[in-house]
Design goal:
Rossmann fold, 3 domains, six-stranded mixed beta sheet, globular, binds 6-O-phosphono-beta-D-fructofuranose
């Protein structure tokens, strides 16, 4: 037993009946209202999951046993919630919702960021029409998602995001850009990440080859290790710091969002933060907040019903990068085998997050969702208001398909022919945004952050470290040294030899 009160709550939950969806709807005419909630211009419809009053009460007891409310308050209070690294997690302070001192520091950094943007827009960097944002993982996924979602019609800057160390990615990212008018933004919390540093070296070369006399003058660093960026050769006036307590995958709200603010404008960036702050307030002030209830559904399927994965489908092209972003947020946060206290985790960690866009997915992987033998809770994310230039019929078909998929997963269909049987009773949640604007997107992403945190608390995991990514990096470094290479296994040495490394 790692945590007796938690184990007792889990055992009680596991003994509860999980009733079929049809029965849940038949027995409760108010089910839709009971399991739906509107927060920040978004409807969260959890009615097509198997949560009912008894399971909800069981999970509420689990949350109490796990000390969810106190841990959430500790997060907002700037206390050390990342025990393994002895740090707070201060992303909420970037939205002005953390401890007063952290909020103040974040506001000061935002005002530095704004001054730099004013300088860029005022011509201090010459005529700039493109941004090459270099970063990987949390230093790229959030900004890329937000810019792709909201910046499609923006004519402010041509923003390219470069993450992979693959030279093909570099060539694609700079394709068509003019070095003379491109600002390079190197984003790395640690400023030690090999992909980002190598790509930044390549960008400096590219600027030089393009005739830029002072390439470093066209380079901005965003980092929580400003001294490393200065050692790299970037003048401190062009180094934007952010707090050590802001984890990479929680960092788009900080100076890491520089490219977002450049692409969308400062006003839109502030709206994004305000939307997230609205969700923060909802979570902080409500012990039964929507992020916690959504975490109950995650845990119901992953822990009680044995689901290995969860799928997220964005029925809106503008949100096509949402599954990629969530993969890091959820799997890097909660894919762990140890508890926050350092004991082995005696239950499953987070499920695998995957997904794509609708309706494309319907013609590819949805076969398995409807008839495969795996249980996969599906999340649909859709937007009511649309901005495309086509006949509204396109959007009606898009939304109609989204809703029809949830209905079909739940209803199923009988047939005498086994190949044509749809078992049904398959769960889904739908998050329906009134519109996709900075404020609503900010709230949506903050919802996912808080849901990930709630999952972690109920599992007893620390969501803010990521030691699992280190071993592979360390092994890659062994390639630099002949002696160290010999410590690698024979299969890996053979691959290295064959590739001529
Ligand atoms: O290797 C994983 C990771 O550390 C992520 O947690 C992080 O978002 C990414 O690499 C990039 O790290 P950095 O911002 O320090 O370059």
């Amino acid at each position: 037993m790692t945590h007796p009160p938690l184990d007792v709550a889990w055992t009680a939950l596991q003994s509860l009946d999980v009733k079929p969806l049809a029965e849940l709807f038949d027995s409760d005419g108010q089910r839709v209202a009971a399991w739906s909630r509107t927060v920040s211009n978004m409807l969260f419809d959890l009615s097509k999951t198997h949560l009912d009053a008894a399971l909800g009460a069981g999970f509420a007891k689990l949350a109490a046993a796990a000390g969810y409310a106190a841990k959430r308050d500790a997060l907002f209070g700037g206390e050390i919630v990342n025990l393994s690294e002895g740090r707070p997690a201060t992303h909420v302070a970037e939205r002005g919702q953390g401890a007063a001192a952290d909020n103040q520091l974040a506001a000061q950094r935002h005002s530095r960021m704004r001054s730099l943007i004013d300088a860029i827009e005022g011509g201090a960097f010459g005529e700039i029409d493109a941004i090459l944002h270099i970063g990987i993982g949390g230093s790229a996924l959030g900004p890329e998602l937000v810019i792709d979602a909201l910046g499609r019609d923006s004519d402010r800057y041509d923003v390219r995001v470069l993450a992979n160390i693959d030279g093909e990615a570099f060539d694609e990212a700079v394709g068509g850009l003019d070095p003379a008018t491109t600002l390079v933004v190197a984003v790395s919390k640690t400023f030690t990440t090999i992909e980002t540093l190598t790509n930044t070296d390549a960008a400096i070369e590219w600027l030089k080859e393009g005739g830029v006399a002072d390439p470093h003058g066209q380079l901005i660093a965003v980092t929580a290790a400003p001294e490393k960026a200065v050692d790299y050769g970037i003048d401190e006036t062009r180094v934007l710091p952010f707090a050590e307590g802001v984890g990479g995958r929680y960092s788009l709200w900080s100076s890491v969002g520089l490219s977002i603010a450049l692409a969308l404008g400062w006003g839109a960036f502030e709206e994004l933060l305000e939307g997230a702050a609205e969700m923060d307030r909802h979570v902080r002030l409500n012990d039964d907040n929507v992020a916690l209830t959504a975490a109950f559904t995650d845990l119901l399927y992953a822990q009680i019903k044995g689901a290995e994965t969860r799928a997220v489908f964005a029925y809106d092209e503008r949100l096509r990068l949402l599954p990629d972003y969530l993969q890091q947020l959820e799997m890097e946060s909660n894919g762990k085998s140890a508890t926050a206290e350092g004991a082995p985790l005696d239950r499953k960690s987070a499920p695998i997050t995957w997904g794509g866009v609708g309706t494309d997915g319907q013609h590819a992987m949805f076969q398995l969702l409807h008839q495969g033998t795996h249980l996969v809770p599906v999340e649909f994310v859709a937007v009511i208001e649309h901005e495309d230039s086509l006949d509204p019929r396109h959007h009606l078909l898009l939304l109609g398909n989204c809703f029809a998929q949830g209905a079909a997963l739940m209803a199923g269909k009988a047939s005498d022919d086994a190949a044509r049987v749809y078992p049904g009773n398959r769960p889904s949640t739908t998050i329906l945004l009134d519109r996709l604007d900075p404020r609503t997107l900010g709230a949506l992403l903050a919802f996912y952050e808080h849901r990930t945190f709630a999952n972690a608390v109920l599992l007893g995991i620390n969501p803010f470290d990521q030691f699992g990514v280190e071993l592979g990096k360390e092994m890659a470094k062994r390639l630099d040294d002949d002696e160290a290479r010999k410590t690698l296994d024979p299969s890996t040495r053979a691959l290295i030899e064959r590739a001529g490394l």
